[in-house]
Write a structure and sequence with these properties.
heterodimer; A: alpha/beta; eight-stranded mixed beta sheet; three-stranded antiparallel beta sheet; 35% helix; globular; B: alpha/beta; seven-stranded mixed beta sheet; 21 helices; 17% strand
Amino acid sequence: MAYQLSLHKGPAELELEILKAGLCTVCGACLGLCPYFRVRKEKVILLESCGKTEGRCYEICPRTRLDLEDLNQKVFGRSRDDFVLGTHTGIFLAQSFSKKIQAKAQYGGVVTGLISWALSKKIIDGAILVGYSTRYSLLPEPVLALGPEQVLACAGSKYTSAPSLKILDYSLKHCKKLAFVGRACQVEALRKRIVVEPEIGERIALIVGLFCMWSLDYRRISEHLAEKMDLSQAKKFDIPYNRFVVYTGRGKKELDFEPIKGMRRATCDICYDFTAELADLSVGSTEWKDDWNTLIVRSERGRRLVERAKKARALRLAEFPEEREALLRNASLGKKQRVVKALFQDKTAREYLAISDKEKEWIANAKPISGVKK
Amino acid sequence: MNPVFKDEPGKVVLMMGNEAIARGAIEAGVDFSASYPGSPSSEIQETLAQSAKIFGHHAEWSVNEKVAFEACCGASFAGMRAITSMKQNGINVVSDVLNTVNLSGIKGGVVLVVADDAGGYSSTNEMDSRLHAKLAELPLLEPSTPEEAKEMVKYAFELSEKVKLPVIVRSVTRISHARGDVKLGEIPKRTRKPAMGFMDRFVGHPILHPILHMRVNQTKAEFEKSPFNQFVGPEDAGTVIAASGPSVAYVLEALHTLGIDDQVGILKLGTTWPIPEQFVRKHLSKASQVIVFEEIEPFLEDNLKVVMADALHQGVSVPKFFAKRSGHIKGPKGAGIGEMTPDIVYDALADILGVKRHMRSERFIDAEKRAVEWKLPGREWAFCAGCPHRASFWVIKNALKEDDREGVLIGDIGCYSMGVSKTGYNLSRTLQCMGAAIGFANGLGNLSGFHQPVIAIAGDSTFYHSCLPGLVNAKYNNAKMVFIVLDNSGTAMTGFQPHPGTGKNAVGEPAYVLSIEKICEGMGIPTQSVDPFEFDDAVQMLDDALEAGEIRVLIFRHKCALIEGRERKEDKPRVFIDQEICIGDECGCNRFCSRVFGCPALIWDNQKQKATIDEVVCTRCGVCVKICPKGAIKMEEQAVPKAVEKRKRK
């Protein structure tokens, strides 16, 4: 099989430039490709080079050359028209109708509700989600959910980097209409994979991106928590508005967030994609109303699905207030400006991000929308 | 009945040197035998274990050579005759007690047979054990044929009782593993009754050193008239060839081929420590040149030189020595290295004596040339197909990589010694002696500023042999390491001898099973066991243990494929590769099974450019089913006999 490879590099370079350089996002894209990559506690390693001089692993990594304009064309059939939030047709406040889902899920339970409903309606026949490891406390683990019960078990945000694309190839063996839910880096990797292997794209029915400013390093956070508490008792943790709450069997415990902030992955600091701009739908918190989510509708198939879900009373939509959109834009712009500065002016990081000069300049000079406050 | 055990005095039986040694002990009426296996010595105790039921003597596989020898001494203290056998590494293990029991003396005859693996074909070292005899000042006998080996062992018991010292009989591979005619002697009835009298005390103390010297002199006097030392040839020969061990036969053959048998004197020495000075002086004093042939170090050469140097004061001229120290006698790797061979002896004699070489026939030269041209393919060291060690090293490789702290694997002795090479993914950093890994790990695991995790390994038999003190030390001194016991249910490398974990003893009777888990748990060490074929479980377990930062024991338990194959009665399902699914050397695999995992049964089909399985080699263990990224390696549901086995059954 001939793959559409353009970067002409392989595992040895991936190990040197990404894994050893601390730039791996633990998206998991390389893990399912071949038996040469391994992951443990959210650290990806190369067992040994396969000996090939070029391969898909390098090509699809979200931290190797990422041509957003090219991918935008391929995904949405048009140019990047919004440098801050990416191509989209609408932004909504959204929540699941189900109280059961809302109670278990993060905020409005949009992802859980939508995936669960899509499975029950056979719009999709499986979804790659993230649950928790039974072996290690708080370690997220990829799950191929085939029914609503499994979806519900995966409800709730995880704040470390689950390598859920690891199970992509395995899942494709079992599903013809697969949904994927993940972070922006994972959506990027998945889109790159589909460019290399277009036939995979035909079997992926939905890609849901999650808003993500950064994710924590599991090894560091679990070590930190182990010093503060009995880690085996910890069931999950949340980061509501710059606080850090751990839930145990006997209630919750709040920890100082400042030291924990420093445990985010360095690679997240060069991420340009807070809202998962290549997804069909992007979902995040509102940082405002706890029982609602922010929902960005991007692709045509995303739009149709949301429309159907709304009609079927699976999702409730509401208008997204203008000042909230301004805040969302400011958050995304702020991140992009920091990244552009780091990548193109300080040149401290690798130049993986291939955006047009026009976009670069626009971002560098854009001013946040004024007059809005949290 | 094994002809080795026949009670037919005078009958000539073809037997292996090691069998002849055992027969010698039987003809001496041996009461007790204990040993730890090691090539090239193992068949001695295997033979004695077989004969135990026939003649009523005790036979055991002991946990190590020191215990075996001490057990023999114990039997001797009660007046019984006892024999132990070992390879050269074994005598190092024994050497502590060897250097005290020489002072205390013994009562019943004690014979220590040490078989040196000259050339180190199946050892981690090459070593001349004879130096231990000199060090401990113990009598040393060197047989030059299987028959002489039998006679010497028989004599060694008498000598031992006469001088009250253990006697060392030194064999080498070409005595132990050669076969020769052996004339059977009488087998006496065992009549001794074990008892320790009030005066039977065996105390090692420096005050007894003069007594040891007295006993050495007594031995020397005995050796002066020993029939194991002979001189043949003209009494006034200008050239004398001195030889011991199998070199004697090589010398006779070379002289015959060169056609000079009657021109030189041959001094054949069978009692090489203490050296029979007068006998030696008598035969060397008339010679102008002496050529010495012996196996490994210039031991005999040096001792002869000392004797002749002393003779200077008696007005005797010292002959010129042509041997290893002068560089005249050396193998391809140098003097004092490797086995002595007929070719080395032949070439050295032709050169030193200036004799024209006997040309080989055209036919021989032609055949030799063709054989060389045939070019047998070079073969790597490799774990057998289905070997659990491959799975264990695979697990260790994965875990160390996943742990990502450049952890080190400290290796030990057994089949898994091959962990230093490609078949074990070059993981082992050390390969020394039995039980050394846990010792080394004690140092590495307690080194401040050393942040690389440490894994030490040992096999099940090695565990009992010499790992326990190291393990106690690690727990006591808090050395951080993971100690992995590769339990394949037998002493595989030396030929599947039973050990304390196998539930059987040397003579095939049921024995108490000493649980490795219970031993380690008894030391307070967290211990877990796992089947290394269960890759995911085993890797995670090892990773967890590495992260624990304290001593942990993991037992990787899976039966040796050879033992499993022997014991298995029923057929197994065939393992095969679905070449429709196999993606060969494409991105996503690139011959992962045949190139990286490396089981000898996983091979490359050059025509189809896909992997395939060599069904003759394959043991159908099925472990490779788990490593194929595409699921192309499959196991059939129905068990069927292997084609080769089917033929055999018909």
